[in-house]
Specification:
heterodimer, A: mainly alpha, Serine Threonine Protein Phosphatase 5, Tetratricopeptide repeat, 3-stranded antiparallel beta sheet, two-stranded antiparallel ribbon, 5% strand, disordered N terminus, B: alpha/beta, Rossmann fold, 2 domains, 5-stranded antiparallel beta sheet, 31% strand, globular
C-alpha cells in the first residue's frame, strides 16, 4: 500500500489521496453558478482552493489508484476502488471524460491559458492535463489512451479479483441476478458496475477503440474469465460489446459461439433475471452458435478448438455429414490431449448418427485411451452396443464405468468442463493482457 | 422390452447363473418371447388372480396368444439410482437415505438390490446383491457434490437392471436438471424402448418437469412422481415397490408381426372394467 493512501469513512472518498497535482488546477468556486457540467471559459487567474471539492477528490483518488494498481493483483488501489458505489464510479468517469473533452476542445481552439468552468469550479486551463493525469506529450495530443486502458485494467481486476471476495452488494448494480448451482437458485449474484465502467472507459479511446489490440485482448481475456466461471449475467453484455467492436475477430466469435452453445441448456439461461435471459429455443441458439463458429473457422482455418465446437453444434442441429467432416479435420490436427479427446468423442457421436458403428466405436475408444478414467466415452460405447442389440458388449463397456474409482480426484473427464474450458484460457489471456503494463511500458 | 433373443443363449452370454433362469418361469429356452409388466387396478387397487385367459395382447394391432402370466412370484432386482449432486443436502439427503433404507426393508429375501449414485459422475455404490447390508452402507457413505448427469445415470441404472435375467425395477431419484450428461435423452429413450426394465422416477423440487424422467418412465411402463418436498419420499419408494409387486408379468411369443421395428402394444383385461398400465410398445431388431 502506498503510504499516501489512507482510508476514510465513506464511499470512494475512502481513498482520499494527497495528490500533489490536486490543488493548483482548481480555482475558488463561484457560489453563484449553478452546478453542472456546462463548460465556459473564464479569464481570471487561478486561485488556490482551500479544499478540493468532493468530485475532484474522487477523481484524484481514482487516477492515483489507476497509476498505482499492479495489473492482475488484488492490491490496495484495487480494493479501495472496489469500495466505490455505482454512482461514484459513474460520476468519476463522467468527470474524467468531461474534463478530457474540455481539454480537447480548448486545445482545438488553441487555448493554453485562462480558466474553464466545470461543476461550479473554475479550473485553470493549463492545469487540466494534470487533473487528468496526462503527461506533457499526451496533453499535447489530447490523448488519454494510456489512462483509459490502465483504468479498464483496474476495473476489470476489481471485478475479477476484489468484488467476488467482497461482502454485500458492493460493486454491483441493483439489477437482480440469480445464482444457480446444480440447477437450483442458491441466491443472488452481482451485475458488476466495474465491468460497465471498464467497457465505457475503453469506448472513450480515440479515434476508435477497435484500432487498439489491447482493447480486443481485454475483451477476449475478460470474456474467457466470465465464461469459465459461467457468469453470464456479466458475460453476455461483455460479449455484446466485444462483438460490436470486433465483429470479425476469431477469438471473440468463438467465445460468442460458446455462450450460445451453453444457452442451449435452459438452466444456464436462468443466470440473469434482469432482462438478459435469452429464452429462445435451443435451435435458435444452436443456429447462432453455428454461424459464429463457422465464421471463426473461415477467418482462422487453424483454429481447431473453434472447428471442434462447430462440428459439435452442426451435429446437434442434425447436420451430421457436415459435422463429421468438420470433426475429422479437427481430429487430424488437434494438439494436446483435451482437444483430441473432444474431437474423438464428438466424431464418435457423429459417426454413430451416420450409422458408422465401427468408426464410432473406434473414435470412442480413442477418446477413452486419451483419458482412461473418463466415463463419457465408455457410456457412449455402452449405449452404442445396446442400440444395436449387443447386450454383452454394452454391459462390458458399462462395467468399465462402474469400476471407475468413486473418488472424483481419480477421475478425469474433460467432457464435464467442455462448456467452460478454453485451450487458450483466461489465465493465459490475462497474462498476455497484463504483460506490457507490468513491463513498465507506458501503454 | 425387446427380449427377442433366445433367453438361454442370452444367459450364457451374460455369464449369469442358471438358477436365475430356473426362478423365472416366463421364458422357454428356445422361443423368442416378449414379456410385459402390467399393472391392473380397479378404483386404484390392484386386481389379483388374473390368468393368461384374462389378458388380451395386441402387438401392432395383431392379437397374440398369451403364454404365461405370473404375479408376485418373481424375485426382484431393484436398482436404486439416486442423485447425489450438490443440491441434495440437509433434510433432502436425510429423506433420501431414509427412503432408500426403507425400501431395502421392504424387500423379500429372494430379492436383490443395487445402488448407483450420480452427480456428474456415475458411481456404483453396490452391485446387484442379496447382501443388502452392502447397499445400506453404500447409501450411508454417499456424499452429495457436483453437477447432475441424470440421463447418463438413467441409462446406467437400466443397464445394471438388464445385467440379470430377473425382473428389474429401476428407481431414479433426482432433484435437478441435467447439467452434465454425455448421452442425449433421446438416445436413452430409444434404448429404453428396447429394454424390459421398468423405470419409476421421482423428480423433486425444481427438478425437470415433464422431461427425460417422464419419458423414460412412460416408455418403460413405470411412473413419474413429481414432488415439491421429499418429506414423504419413504412412502413413495414403498408405494413404488408395492405397485411393482402387484404387477403381472405377461409373456407371449410374437406371431404375425414383423421382427424388427417399433411394436405398439395394447394390453386389455377381458370383460372387466379395470385400468391397465403397461409400456406403450417395444423396439425390436437393429
Amino acid at each position: 500500500m502506498n503510504a499516501r493512501v489512507r482510508a476514510t469513512s465513506s464511499g470512494f472518498a475512502a481513498a482520499i489521496v494527497t495528490l500533489a497535482l490536486a490543488g493548483p488546477a482548481v480555482a475558488q468556486p463561484r457560489a453563484t453558478k449553478p452546478p453542472g457540467a456546462q463548460v465556459s471559459l473564464v479569464d481570471s487567474q487561478a486561485a488556490q482552493p482551500a479544499k478540493s471539492p468532493p468530485w475532484l477528490q474522487n477523481l484524484q483518488s481514482w487516477l492515483q489508484a489507476i497509476a498505482e494498481h499492479k495489473p492482475g493483483e488484488p492490491d490496495i488501489p484495487a480494493i479501495l476502488t472496489g469500495s466505490a458505489t455505482e454512482a461514484e464510479l459513474e460520476a468519476v468517469r463522467i468527470d474524467f471524460l468531461a474534463l478530457l473533452d474540455i481539454h480537447r476542445r480548448l486545445a482545438e481552439r488553441g487555448a493554453r491559458a485562462g480558466q474553464a468552468r466545470y461543476k461550479n469550479e473554475d479550473i485553470t486551463v493549463s492545469g487540466i492535463p494534470k487533473l487528468l493525469g496526462l503527461t506533457s506529450a499526451e496533453a499535447e495530443r489530447s490523448d488519454a489512451t494510456r489512462i483509459l486502458k490502465r483504468a479498464a485494467i483496474l476495473h476489470g481486476d476489481v471485478a475479477m479479483l476484489v468484488i467476488p471476495n467482497s461482502l454485500g452488494k458492493v460493486g454491483c448494480t441493483t439489477q437482480p441476478v440469480v445464482v444457480l448451482k446444480d440447477g437450483h437458485d442458491v441466491g443472488t449474484g452481482c451485475h458488476g458496475t466495474h465491468w460497465i465502467q471498464g467497457r465505457a472507459l475503453l469506448d472513450a479511446i480515440r479515434p476508435y477503440p477497435r484500432a487498439d489490440p489491447m482493447v480486443r485482448l481485454w475483451y477476449e481475456a475478460t470474456i474467457a474469465f466470465l465464461l469459465e466461471r459461467m457468469d453470464y449475467a456479466n458475460g453476455v453484455p461483455q460479449i455484446d460489446q466485444g462483438s460490436l467492436l470486433f465483429p470479425s475477430d476469431p477469438g471473440l466469435l468463438f467465445e460468442h459461439g460458446v455462450s450460445h452453445e451453453t444457452f442451449v441448456s435452459v438452466i444456464n439461461q436462468a443466470g440473469d433475471r434482469g432482462g438478459k435471459v435469452d429464452l429462445r429455443p435451443a435451435s435458435a441458439h444452436l443456429k447462432e452458435a453455428e454461424a459464429l463458429f463457422r465464421r471463426a473457422v473461415e477467418l482462422d482455418p487453424g483454429f481447431i478448438e473453434a472447428r471442434i465446437h462447430h462440428g459439435a453444434v452442426l451435429g446437434a442441429l442434425g447436420r451430421h455429414d457436415e459435422a463429421a467432416g468438420e470433426l475429422r479435420k479437427a481430429a487430424a490436427s488437434a494438439q494436446g490431449p483435451i482437444l483430441r479427446y473432444y474431437a474423438e468423442l464428438f466424431l464418435g457421436n457423429e459417426e454413430q448418427a451416420l450409422g458408422g458403428r465401427d468408426a464410432a466405436r473406434a473414435h470412442y475408444n480413442q477418446a477413452s485411451a486419451l483419458f482412461p478414467t473418463a466415463q463419457s466415452p465408455r457410456i457412449a460405447l455402452s449405449a452404442l452396443a445396446r442400440q444395436r442389440g449387443d447386450r454383452v458388449e454394452a454391459l462390458a463397456a458399462m462395467r468399465h464405468v462402474l469400476n471407475l474409482p468413486a473418488d472424483e480426484r481419480r477421475r478425469e473427464d474433460p467432457w464435464w468442463s467442455y462448456r467452460f474450458w478454453f485451450d487458450k484460457n483466461a489465465e493465459m489471456l490475462l497474462r498476455d493482457l497484463y504483460r506490457p503494463f507490468l513491463a513498465g511500458g507506458q501503454q | 422390452m425387446n427380449r427377442r433373443v433366445p433367453v438361454v443363449a442370452a444367459l450364457l452370454l451374460w455369464g449369469l447363473p442358471l438358477h436365475a433362469a430356473a426362478q423365472n418361469p416366463t421364458f422357454s429356452s428356445k422361443v423368442e418371447a416378449v414379456r410385459v409388466d402390467v399393472l391392473v387396478t380397479k378404483d386404484g387397487k390392484p386386481v389379483r388372480n388374473l390368468g393368461p385367459a384374462d389378458f388380451e395382447i395386441f402387438d401392432n394391432g395383431v392379437p397374440q396368444q398369451v403364454d404365461l402370466v405370473s404375479f408376485e412370484q418373481l424375485p426382484l432386482n431393484v436398482v436404486l439410482t439416486l442423485d447425489m449432486s450438490d443440491s441434495v443436502v440437509g433434510e433432502r439427503l436425510a429423506h433420501l437415505r431414509a427412503a432408500g433404507q426403507g425400501l431395502l426393508d421392504g424387500l423379500k429375501s429372494e430379492d436383490r438390490a443395487a445402488l448407483v449414485t450420480f452427480n456428474h459422475m456415475v458411481t456404483l455404490g453396490a452391485d446387484l446383491t442379496a447382501d443388502w447390508g452392502r447397499v445400506r452402507r453404500a447409501l450411508d457413505q454417499a456424499r452429495p457434490k457436483g453437477n447432475t448427469s441424470v440421463v447418463d445415470a438413467g441409462f446406467t441404472g437400466m443397464m445394471l437392471g438388464e445385467s440379470d435375467v430377473g425382473r428389474s425395477l429401476v428407481i431414479v431419484f433426482s432433484d435437478g436438471l441435467d447439467t452434465s450428461s454425455w448421452l442425449a435423452p433421446e438416445a436413452v429413450i430409444e434404448i429404453a424402448k428396447r429394454s424390459d426394465v421398468v423405470v419409476y422416477a421421482v423428480s423433486a423440487g425444481e427438478g425437470e418437469k415433464g422431461g427425460f424422467l417422464r419419458e423414460l418412465s412412460e416408455q418403460t411402463g413405470g411412473r413419474l412422481f413429481e414432488i415439491e418436498s421429499t418429506k414423504n419420499l419413504s412412502a413413495i419408494f414403498l408405494q413404488v415397490l408395492d405397485e411393482f409387486r402387484q404387477r403381472y408379468v405377461v409373456s407371449y411369443s410374437p406371431a404375425g408381426v414383423p421382427a424388427d421395428g417399433w411394436h405398439r402394444l395394447t394390453v386389455r383385461v377381458k370383460g372387466r372394467e379395470v385400468t391397465v398400465k403397461a409400456r406403450p410398445g417395444y423396439l425390436a431388431g437393429r
